[in-house]
Amino acid sequence: SGSRTTKNGVVSGFMILATALAIVPLAWLLASALHRGLGPILHASWWANTMDPSLDVAKQGALHAIVGTLVIGLITSVISIPIALLTAIFLVEYARGTKLARVISFAVDVLTGVPSIVAALFIFAMWLTIFGFKRSGMAVALSLVLLMIPIVVRNTEEMLFCFCLFVCFFETEFYSCCPDWSAMVRSWLTATSASRVQVILLP
User: d(Cα 39, Cα 30) in Å, to the nearest integer?
Assistant: First the structure.
C-alpha cells in the first residue's frame, strides 16, 4: 500500500543518513592520518630512530615502539601458549565431564568476555598498587596473557574435538612406548600442528 511505501522510504532515508553520518567522520580521520603520517613512514629514519628528545621531531621514529611490541608479544606467547594448549588437552582428554572441567570451562568463558581495559586495570592494580613494582612491559604482557589464554584454550578445545577420531587412530602406537600423558600430548600436538598455528595467531 501507499502508507507502507512511504514508511519504507522514510526509514530507508534515515538509514542512509545514519550511515553517511558514521562514514564521513571515519573517512575524514583516515584521510587526515594518511596526509600527516604517510610522509614520515616512507622515510628510513622513522623505522631506525627512537623518540629521543635530543632529536628533532622530524627525525624521531618508532623503533622503540616496534621493538617493544615484538618483545611484549614474545613474552605473552611464551607464557600463554603452553598454558593454553595443555589446558585444552586436559579438558578434552582427561577431565571431560568432571566437575573440575566445568569449573575451568566456566573460568575460561568468563575470561573470554572480559574487556581489555578490565584486564589492564586488574594487572595495574596487582602489579603497581599491591606488589609495588614499576611500570614495565612485563605488566603489559601479563594483561595480554589474560586476554590470550581463554581465546587459545577455547579454540584449541574445539579444534581438538574435530581431530578426535584422527588422533585416536594413532594413540595405540604411542601408548606402546610412552607414558600415558606423554603419548597423549605428543599425539594431539603432532596431529593438530597446522591448526594450532592458526589458533595461536587468532588473538
Answer: 14
pLDDT by residue (tens digit) across 139-178?
Answer: 888 888 988 898 888 888 877 776 655 555 555 444 444 4
Residue type, 183: A
Residues 6+ apart with CB under 8 A from 87: 104, 108, 149, 153
Per-residue pLDDT tens digits for 75-95: 998 999 889 888 888 887 777
Residues 6+ apart with CB under 8 A from 85: 152, 156, 189, 196
177-184: long-range pairs with CB below 8 Å, 24+ = 184/89, 184/93, 184/94
Listing DSSP states for 89-127 in one string gives HIIIIISTTSHHHHHHHHHHHHHHT--HHHHHHHHHIII
Dihedrals phi, psi of 150, to nearest 5 degrees: -65, -35
Query: Do residues 156 and 94 make contact, with C-beta atoms less than 8 angstroms apart?
Result: no
Give the span between the Cα atoms of 111 and 24, in whole angstroms.
35
The CA distance from 203 to 199, in Å, is 8
